[in-house]
């Protein structure tokens, strides 16, 4: 594989770890950043994370082979490398198709590739949408794609290229759902049910609203504000409601959380997926 310039200004290094007597602890190693020597994780010696250089080479080779463009690399740990809440991931976005217009909203899709260094998540492949009208984002890990590539623990660029139709089929079906959403009319009952699912409302809370906490009520109000705004612009349909949820998770929830990676993981992604699954069932 051709070596490309590393897209990151750091890499990982691996070293033995020692006990209080200065003796090597067998079977384990530490993984640290080579720019500031901050510890990422202590792992078993059998764990072999992808380096940032290998990741860059892989991404650039994939893009070259499928005739696409790498538009962004991101380091999700950043300056928070010392924080226990840091997300030790790096990602790349490859622009696959021209922007699609749905109900006057331009949507740009990206093949998103990433890897982690602490065993929490190894190499993965996902899809990310950016709604150019309002910069809302929606992302998913494509489990069928990722499992095909990593089932033998041997990642090869040619396997990704060979299976790229798994991604394109996922994107095609997703956009078919989006186009159907704009034709599905919604009412207040559907909106309230969607919000109830998003805040994990219990059966007891559904019966007696006095049991709902102030924090949960505030979240419901914030989501409803996004619903009123987006549906006013896009219509009282499933597309408007879906955009309202992604507006909330992208712009409102993000401003109050340190979970910068919630587009693909975390609570905000869970909310997006809940909304999509509910609306996808509507006819």
Description:
With 283 residues, this protein is α+β, with helices and mostly antiparallel strands. It folds into 2 domains: 49-179; 182-280, no CATH class. It has 9 helices and 9 strands. The chain has helices at residues 52-66, 143-150, 157-162, 164-181, 188-198, 203-207, 214-234, 238-252, 266-280, and strands at 12-18, 24-33, 39-44, 69-75, 89-95, 100-102, 105-116, 124-131, 136-141. The strands form 2 sheets. Strands 4, 5, 6, 7, 8 and 9 form a 6-stranded antiparallel beta sheet that branches. It has a 3-stranded antiparallel beta sheet with strand order 1-2-3, with no helix packed on it. Strand 6 and strand 7 (105-116) form a beta hairpin. Helix 4 crosses helix 8 and helix 8 (238-252) packs antiparallel against helix 9. The longest helix has 21 residues, at 214-234. The chain starts with 11 loop residues before the first strand and ends with a helix. Residues 79-85 and 256-260 have low confidence and may be disordered.
